[in-house]
Design a protein that fits this description.
disordered N terminus, six-stranded antiparallel β-barrel, Rossmann fold, L-fucose Isomerase, Chain A, domain 3, five-stranded parallel beta sheet, alpha/beta, 484 residues
Length: 484
């Protein structure tokens, strides 16, 4: 492919080129409106429908505990006020069933409606409701019971019920902290996102067997796309829009180090093409076999895909390196659970600090999610190729992180830790461009001794082991802490 820069492309780059000379820390300059994806997203990672949740308040009239005079309507009003207080956490939730149930028969009457939900949130109000719980569990939907202290004595049986077939999809949150109501719906959101997600994979390799397993287990569709289609979409992007996109990246950067204005322009144009292709396909994630069938001494695309991946992640979609479908699935799970993108990485271990360095050239400035402030970044080349365009992102020291990878359809390997350094200065020139040094929770030697299932992992901000635990239980996935 002729990669010489066209004359009209230089015209579009006039403003962008002068901006390269201005160095200074700025944040990513546009939000999830206008050119962004916000108007097309129900929540980060989902462009389809809201998550359907049954919210069941469970109580019998005049139960003796916590007290015979408990005003059930007042209790329900308290909880509804808490949901309203945290309304942003539930903006993509449709409480399609929202009832006070006081008998098993009332639950039975809801059975057809319960069959349509992604999960059931049970709010335990008073004692002697075990038979009602059993009828809810008979619906065989992912179910979380939320119980404050003094709700009742039923909690003493929850552990045993979870070990029985009836409780195979039951988990519980026993706390006075009502903010954890938001935590309760997160696994339902991840299940919903997976079912509605569509992945576009630019490769010539046959991945149909894996795609069929994913579709059967999670409902996620993975569709191939050819190089000709991708190039055609690229060519359909106007030079004006590509120039404006390049200018945004340049103005938002702390510094442009190696890439030329021409390279940034092409990368920006491909970034817009990725979003356009996702829109055409009603898809949510893009991945490219950039070091495989799309690589032959030089990238076969008009530009490297890295900037485009970063942009998709910034906007609440997904951009995944190297046609890594396991990392893709892990990204969708992370985004469903906490609304934040993952960081694909290659690891290297430092026993002297009990840490693991997680590195990849592609960084995502909005690791906190599309609506949150962005991290500083430089514009760099791909390190091992010394070409292309990537954002080298300075992630936040002190941030808790979770790293995981979905292995097959029934195992997720993970560990947690804290970022102790982000070695992204120009002097830190070993390994990939974006790097974080993570002090591991647990034993670093156990981590490398237990390591299996390849190189790549996905890292997300936050210790999300609780959310992962709920999700894994509901989807029959075995969680393995690699550092334990």
């Amino acid at each position: 492919m002729d990669k010489g820069l066209k004359r009209r492309e230089f015209i579009q780059l006039a403003a962008a080129g002068t901006a390269i000379c201005a160095a200074g820390p700025r944040l990513w300059p546009f939000a999830m409106t206008g050119q962004g994806a916000g108007s097309r997203l129900v929540s980060p990672g989902c462009r389809g429908t809201k998550v359907k949740v049954a919210r069941l308040f469970v109580a019998i009239p005049r139960g003796n505990w916590p007290k015979p005079t408990l005003d059930l309507q007042q209790e329900i009003a308290f909880y509804r006020a808490e949901f309203t207080r945290m309304k942003d956490e539930f903006a993509d939730i449709d409480f399609s069933v929202d009832e006070l149930v006081a008998s098993p028969a009332q639950v039975s009457a809801l059975r057809d409606r319960l069959a349509q939900v992604d999960g059931i949130l049970v709010i335990h109000l008073n004692i002697d409701v075990g038979d009602i719980f059993n009828e809810i569990l008979a619906a065989a939907k992912p179910t979380i019971i939320f119980a404050r202290p003094y709700s009742g004595h039923e909690w003493v049986d929850f552990g045993e019920i979870r070990r029985q077939p009836l409780g195979a999809k039951l988990d519980c949150i026993l706390t006075s902290d009502t903010s954890r109501l938001a935590e309760a719906v997160r696994p339902f959101r991840a299940i919903h996102h997976l079912r509605e997600a569509k992945v576009i994979n630019l490769t010539t390799y046959d991945f149909s067997e894996y795609a069929a397993k994913v579709k059967n287990k999670f409902g996620t569709e993975i569709k191939p796309v050819g190089l000709d289609r991708m190039v055609a979409v690229y060519n359909s992007i106007s030079d004006r829009d590509a120039g404006a996109e390049a200018d945004r990246w340049i103005k938002g950067a702390v510094r442009v180090v190696e890439p030329s204005p021409e390279d940034i322009f092409r990368s920006a144009k491909l970034a817009l093409a990725f979003e356009k292709l996702l829109d055409e396909e009603d898809a949510t994630v893009m991945t490219v076999d950039c070091y495989g069938s799309m690589w032959d001494k030089t990238i076969k695309l008009p530009a490297y895909p890295c900037l485009g991946f970063s942009r998709l992640n910034n906007l609440g979609w997904g951009g995944i390196c190297e046609s890594d479908l396991r990392s893709t699935m892990t990204h969708i799970i992370f985004q469903g659970l906490v609304g934040r993108p993952g960081f694909v990485s290659d690891p290297t271990v430092d026993e002297s600090k009990g840490s693991i360095i997680l590195a990849h050239c592609l960084g995502t400035p909005r690791m906190d999610g599309p609506a949150k402030p962005a991290a500083p970044y430089k514009i760099r080349t791909v390190m091992e190729r010394q070409e292309g365009v990537v954002p080298q992102v300075e992630m936040r020291v002190g941030e808790r992180v979770t790293q995981a990878i979905l292995v097959g359809m029934d195992t997720m390997r993970y560990f947690t830790g804290t970022i102790i350094e982000a070695p992204v200065g120009l002097e830190a020139d070993r390994g990939c461009r974006t790097k974080i040094d993570v002090k591991v929770d647990g034993d670093i030697r156990r981590l490398w001794q237990n390591w299996t299932a390849g190189l790549h992992r996905q890292t997300v901000y936050g210790d999300i082991t609780k959310e992962l635990g709920f999700f894994a239980r509901f989807k029959e996935i075995r969680l393995i802490d690699e550092a334990a």
